[in-house]
Design a protein that fits this description.
The chain contains three helices and six strands, in the order H-H-E-E-H-E-E-E-E. The chain is α+β, with helices and mostly antiparallel strands. It has one domain: Nuclear Transport Factor 2, Chain: A, CATH 3.10.450.50. It has a six-stranded mixed beta sheet with strand order 2-1-6-5-4-3. It is globular and about 40 Å long. InterPro entries: DUF4440, NTF2-like_dom_sf. It holds the Pfam family DUF4440.
Length: about 120
């Protein structure tokens, strides 16, 4: 799972839409730290497409996984830096990612992000 999670991050930061699309389940759902909901295509448009977002860094601080059969739950603490539109963002986010195995292939089913307030 760690390698798959690292690959997901690398594809996202690189803006590789095709690689990310192949990694994501068709019924993908994601809730960002502002509570906005995304399906597969809207996530790709907002958080991967280099015309919308410019990633500076997405670094894994902590990683924990629980795998039960064809379901994996991954908990991450990520440090992220990116430019979205005209605004620059930097922060730590706790992420919960779900992966499902279909036909022997792990796919990113979705997840949820929470901004960590360290003040």
């Amino acid at each position: 799972m760690k390698q798959l999670s690292d690959d997901r991050s690398a594809h996202q930061v690189a803006g590789d839409l095709d690689a990310m699309r192949a990694l994501m389940h068709d019924s993908f759902r994601y809730v960002d730290s502002s509570g906005r909901q995304f399906d597969k295509e809207t996530f790709l448009d907002q958080f991967v497409d280099p015309t919308a977002i410019q990633w500076i860094a997405q670094d894994t601080v902590t990683f924990d996984e629980t795998v039960r059969g064809d379901l994996a739950v991954v908990q991450l603490l990520l440090e992220e830096k990116f430019i979205l539109g005209t605004n620059a963002y930097e922060g730590r986010f706790w992420m919960l990612h779900l992966y499902v195995k279909e036909d022997g292939v792990w796919l990113w089913q979705g997840g949820q992000a929470t901004m960590i307030n360290e003040g």
